[in-house]
Design goal:
heterodimer, A: mainly alpha, 0% strand, B: mainly alpha, 79% helix
Chain lengths: 166, 98
């Protein structure tokens, strides 16, 4: 019954990405980007990569998208752009049903996928990778995980340095 | 289902590439780059989920973490360009200076 979820989520992700490309307001483009991220998370969940879907929402919707919106508002209206149409940084020039669909569609798809658990066979085989991700991260890939953590620390320090030189 | 995810991943990558190439504003180009990273992560994550491969999961997780660090630095640079009084567009950035 719910096998249509993955093709639907894929089509919705591509549609919102195309919408993002066509937007002149960067705020509307950021909202479309967030909708794409949520649909991609549904795709990953339906493919059996459940932990990755959760982490994608956590990192992109919870951190990167918020940073983008903060930058848009910190730059102020216009954002210094030459073209006044493109300069509408902080205006949400997106029909509200479309903006609402960007958030409500992934929510409905997730509820349908969760309701499927326990009642029908999963769309994808249970991901054994989810269970071994932690041991792999803190086992053979501990050095890589530490290196990435160090990279994120350096990135934040670089931002502080740039702020000091302002 | 694999073909569906691959088609969606390819389309997302191409749309991100189009945004990175066609847009003039730095933030719009940045959104396109992030879209390309997410598309690649989707294809890799789908295959990892299909085969239950922990190494694929680790690779996607590291890619997402590196992309988050890249986002922090990229957005700070865009904001710095804006604060320096220049337009946050590609045309206004023609030379590097230490």
């Amino acid at each position: 019954m719910a096998s249509w979820i993955v093709p639907f989520a894929g089509a919705a992700a591509v549609a919102f990405a195309a919408l993002m490309l066509l937007q002149r307001s960067l705020y509307a483009a950021a909202v479309c980007f967030l909708a794409v991220i949520l649909q991609v998370a549904v795709l990953l969940y339906g493919s059996g990569a459940r932990l990755l879907a959760f982490l994608l929402v956590l990192i992109y919707a919870g951190a990167v998208a918020v940073l983008i919106v903060v930058v848009i508002h910190a730059a102020g209206p216009g954002g210094g752009a030459r073209d006044p149409g493109e300069g509408a940084w902080s205006r949400l020039n997106l029909p509200w049903p479309m903006a609402a669909a960007g958030f409500l569609l992934p929510l409905a798809e997730t509820i349908i996928l969760l309701a499927r658990v326990g009642t029908q066979a999963p769309l994808a085989p249970v991901a054994a990778g989810d269970l071994v991700l932690g041991p792999a991260l803190f086992g053979p890939y501990a050095l890589a995980a530490e290196a990435v953590a160090l990279l994120m620390l350096f990135a934040s320090l670089a931002v502080l340095h740039a702020e000091d030189r302002r | 289902m694999t073909l569906t995810v691959w088609c969606a991943s390819g389309a997302l990558f191409l749309l991100g590439l189009a945004a990175a190439v066609l847009k003039r504003q730095l933030l719009a180009m940045f959104l396109g780059l992030e879209l390309m990273v997410v598309a690649a992560a989707l294809a890799l994550g789908q295959q990892a989920g299909r085969f239950g491969d922990s190494e694929g999961f680790v690779a996607v997780l590291l890619v997402l973490a590196v992309a988050a660090a890249e986002a922090v630095v990229g957005l700070a640079l865009i904001l710095r360009v804006h604060w320096s009084g220049r337009r946050p567009e590609t045309g206004s950035l023609r030379e590097l200076r230490g």
